[in-house]
Amino acid sequence: VVKGRAEEPVYIWISDQEVEIRPAAHLWGLDTHETAAAIQDETDPQAQVACIGPAGERLSLMASVMIGGTDSRAAGRGGMGAVMGSKNLKAVAVRGTSKPEYFDRQGLLRSVRQANAIIRDNSLAMTQFGTSGGIITTEQVGDMAIQNWRLGSWKEGAPKITGERMAETILTGNYHCHACPIGCGREIEITEGPLAGLQGSGPEYETIIGFGPMCLNDDLESIAAMNDLCNRYGLDTISTSGTVAFAMEAWEKGLLDSEDTGGLDLSWGNTKSMIQLIEMIGRREGLGAALADGTRAAAERLDANSIEFAVQVKGLELPYHDPRAFTSMALGYATANRGGDHLETMTYWHEYGKEWPDMGYVDPPDKLSSEGKGKMVADFQNFMQVFNGLGLCKFIAKAGVGPQLLAEWTNLALGWDWKVEDVLSTGERTFNLKRLINARWGISRKDDTLPPRMLSHPRPSGSAQGNLPHLGKMLHEYYEARGWSEDGLPTPEKLEELGLSDL
Amino acid sequence: VVKGRAEEPVYIWISDQEVEIRPAAHLWGLDTHETAAAIQDETDPQAQVACIGPAGERLSLMASVMIGGTDSRAAGRGGMGAVMGSKNLKAVAVRGTSKPEYFDRQGLLRSVRQANAIIRDNSLAMTQFGTSGGIITTEQVGDMAIQNWRLGSWKEGAPKITGERMAETILTGNYHCHACPIGCGREIEITEGPLAGLQGSGPEYETIIGFGPMCLNDDLESIAAMNDLCNRYGLDTISTSGTVAFAMEAWEKGLLDSEDTGGLDLSWGNTKSMIQLIEMIGRREGLGAALADGTRAAAERLDANSIEFAVQVKGLELPYHDPRAFTSMALGYATANRGGDHLETMTYWHEYGKEWPDMGYVDPPDKLSSEGKGKMVADFQNFMQVFNGLGLCKFIAKAGVGPQLLAEWTNLALGWDWKVEDVLSTGERTFNLKRLINARWGISRKDDTLPPRMLSHPRPSGSAQGNLPHLGKMLHEYYEARGWSEDGLPTPEKLEELGLSDL
Q: Residue B9 carries which DSSP code?
């Protein structure tokens, strides 16, 4: 835990057991790729560097912590980059040479290898086409966020931004995180046209939807460029794209004019303007100053009613799975501890058809219905607490890693005796702990809501046309399943049951 | 229209064509009964006096304008008393001796006499037992607000506070507004016990529910005393009782202690404390200072999360018809131009079973369903704009006065050629005009919502047990019926159609 604030910019260098705080004034202002390279030069070429870019330095609430230099893996959501920036902490670099000890190393390796084979078989499309391989389906199922969540279908645009199209055009290879059997990461290069020379990590599903249909942009190369910019500035691509789409709607509605934008034409799909706007956000310059903290803050700065189209929960922009197409996500977004966050829930996979026999979810429910989703969301949130807490990637969950395997791995690694119910009860305790922290900041039922656009603007076309989540009903079922009060707070009885009654 | 603010307290005296602004420093601080009597002494014993009490002088946002002295008729909702107070205007007194001229006086009188016979026949229970005659049914149908809207049934308490019980105990007569065939007004006297000596107007339905079940109080005599206090201070009984119930819940939850209350024990049903609290609110003293502007303002002053149980819309406390029992009222409250107001809608009567053949509403819908209520609420709001605008009493609407009769009376009075559709289109124009005024103050879709308690806390028992309005869906249907944008604003096309395109 890093406490306090350095007087001058610093970075932390951890080499095995040694921890050193080093000056970083010379790195201040560098982008995340430059920063990682410079720190590897100064420390160890194999050091892993987690750093912030200019956005984090300027305390953007959309600033991410970028990891792995040009690999551009991100701790993206919730503005953690601004936390580092506020501490004058440019980076944390780590190099360890010792190996972890396990209770049963051979057993663990054997189990992981077995799982890897299953994960690999279940993830062939992901390996081949990356996280954006399913975009045609996304559009067909009514899940795609289009024009700041206003349109219902985009049949003409969807084929132009898919993982398949990327594979046919700019893809040069795929990237594997350490020991991963999938390798969903994209490596791309643009060799022709105005963006020629762009090379590095390719955009992921969320980024493609965000800078694509959300902004009515079907130009995949421009999306790759925007992705690259966000990575370099250290900006969360979900929040940034949501904020760009918000600005475009404000432009359309005449709430922003070219004086506000410094001459940029923010018409839908204007990729040149989008690229410039991202730069302005990353540097908190011009209109970027009003947008750098996301849509909720921008709405407060621009015009009271623009909060109507600021699509966020508790200040965090929604990721690109439509809660009108997968109603469980309405509840998941409304109750996630970070705000508009899907990683605490992931129930849309079950609504899509994936079964979770470990948890008793073998009969996928109607994705458009608001019935019976309360307990389901609570159960998956509990599971995902442990899953995320172990630092695992959600795509192996999709490929089959459920609470049974988490228990098995934990037991093999630590010599414990966990069963599925221990995983879930630990997750429940974790979720309640986070909720208690939020409650100290004044969060309660009143904050567990969705933006107006999700509650009363149905999609006008497509498979999810006309559907609206009955959030109040789902919240009631959810609080009941959680054993919380109707005001969304853990009851003394629930805290007692979870061993948290001293909090 | 009264513009500006007098330097010293004044009242306005209008005698036929003469208008006089008179000093009122000697009336400042008097209650509404005293004020009306004093002004009648100074002007004309037959003058009609509309005045404020101490609450309006202290700019309470719950302050009403009281009319008719001891008859205690109120322009109750929305804090109009504070508007007069802010202008240093204690009263407006009027005495006119000329008669209005009508296009067809005989025809109008004949039509009104025919209607009066029907109204009288349809309102026998109302004449006998007043507005609180139906309280047993209110409880049975799941409509009764109990313990700040938390409980679902109150079978043991309901019989003790009905109009029938009032008739058996403290009722001494009934009061007719000018030329009214119903006479729902109650005259009461308490001759025994601690409240002996109380005499005057009796409490109405809303007042009885508010100071009764809302506060778990089944003592009708105490309710009569609270009603008298509110009338004298010039306080809206709905907002005041809602605020007292809010304070009682805050006490239960430990957010108020006896230091905050000046020693009052705000346990549910403590009538002695309730009476004292109303006095404190009327004088804006002690805890009354925090409560005098209603629940929303009180929640801001007390504790951020107490907004959870501040049952108001746009700052106005809900009247006592449960939107979980009559779902159309959810939509009506959310969209009424004054805030949590039932008088712009009145659709619960249709859901109860009353038919409106003039408007094509002959088949009452399922009162618990959220389907198909959008157009219905818009239509009834349009009707009620004209109905209320003509200064008519809603109880004659209940008894059978629909748009057909409004058109007929208008034509006879003014020589116009109105049909039902003219009444409704005039109402639509009026409603849109009010919405445009609200829009200038920043009102849009985001404000068309209900408090958390109505959206996700179902009634735990009784006939409406478990039901929650699907507000988002109803709002969508409503905006569509109104021809408004999804953000709840009149579109340019709609304004054009209504002849309001210059606004």
A: -
Closest CA to B167 of B187, B141, B197: B187
The rounded distance, in Å, linking the Cα atoms of B8 and B26 is 11
What value of ipTM does the predicted structure carry? 0.93
Using a CB–CB cutoff of 8 Å, tell me whether B476 touches chain A. Answer: yes
Structure tokens belonging to residue B451: 């408090």
Same-domain check for residues A261 and A372: no
Range of the domain at A412: 321-497
pLDDT in tens, A174-221: 999 988 999 999 999 999 999 999 999 999 999 999 999 999 999 999
Q: Indicate which CATH number applies to the domain containing A366.
A: 1.10.599.10
Is B108 a member of any domain? Answer: no
The CATH number for B43's domain is 3.60.9.10
- Classify residue A424 by burial, with Cβ atoms within 10 Å: 0-12, 13-18, 19+: buried
Half-sphere CA count of B434, side-chain side, radius 13 A: 16
The pLDDT, as a whole number, for residue A107 is: 98
CATH code (residue A156): 1.10.569.10
DSSP letter (8 states) at residue B278: H
Token pair 């404020």 is found at B52
Question: Are B297 and B329 in a shared domain?
Answer: no
User: What pLDDT digit, counting tens, does each position of A107-139 carry?
Assistant: 999 999 999 999 999 999 999 999 999 899 999
Q: Does B442 touch chain A (CB under 8 A)?
A: yes
Closest-CA distance, A106 to chain B, in angstroms, reads 51
Per the structure, the count of domains in chain B is 3
What tokens does B188 get? 């009461």
For residue A457, list chain B residues with Cβ-Cβ distance below 8 A. Answer: 476, 486
Q: How far apart are CA B129 and CA B171, in angstroms?
A: 9
Closest chain B CA to residue A456 = B472
Rounded percentage of chain A residues whose pLDDT exceeds 90: 97
Nearest to A308 among B445, B455, B473 (CB): B445
Question: Is the same domain home to A230 and A293?
Answer: yes
What are the tens digits of pLDDT across the range A20-29? 999 999 999 9
pLDDT above 80 for B396: yes
Do residues B294 and B370 share a domain? no
Same domain for B324 and B185:
no
Compute the distance between CA of residue A54 and CA of residue A59 in angstroms, rounded to an integer. Answer: 9
pLDDT at residue A304, rounded to an integer: 73
CA distance B494 to B485: 10
- The whole-number pLDDT of residue A502 equals 86
| A196 lies in the same domain as A342 | no
Residues A309-318 pLDDT 10s: 999 999 999 9
Distance between CA B500 and CA B493 in Å, rounded?
10
* Inside any domain, residue A118: no
Question: Which of B268, B245, B267 is closest to B258 using CA atoms?
Answer: B267
The answer to whether the Cβ–Cβ distance between A476 and B468 falls below 8 Å is yes
Q: Centre a 10 Å sphere on the Cβ of residue A319 and count the other Cβ atoms it contains.
A: 20
**Domain-located, residue B222:** yes
| Residue of A199, A204, A196 whose CA lies nearest to A187 | A199
Establish if B487 belongs to a structural domain.
Answer: yes
Please tell me whether residues A193 and A73 are part of one structural domain. Answer: no
CA distance A314 to B385: 37
Q: Are residues B474 and B325 in the same domain?
A: yes
CA distance A259 to chain B (A): 23
CB-based contacts of B441, cutoff 8 Å, min separation 6: none
A261-279 as b/e: b if 16+ CB within 10 A = beebebebbbbebbbbbbb
Q: Cβ separation of A470 and B473 shorter than 8 Å? A: yes
How do residues B55-102 score in pLDDT, each as one tens digit? 999 999 999 999 999 999 999 999 999 999 999 999 999 999 999 999
Query: Tokens 């009708």 label which residue?
Result: B220
Asked whether the beta carbons of residue A469 and residue B472 sit closer than 8 angstroms, the reply is: yes
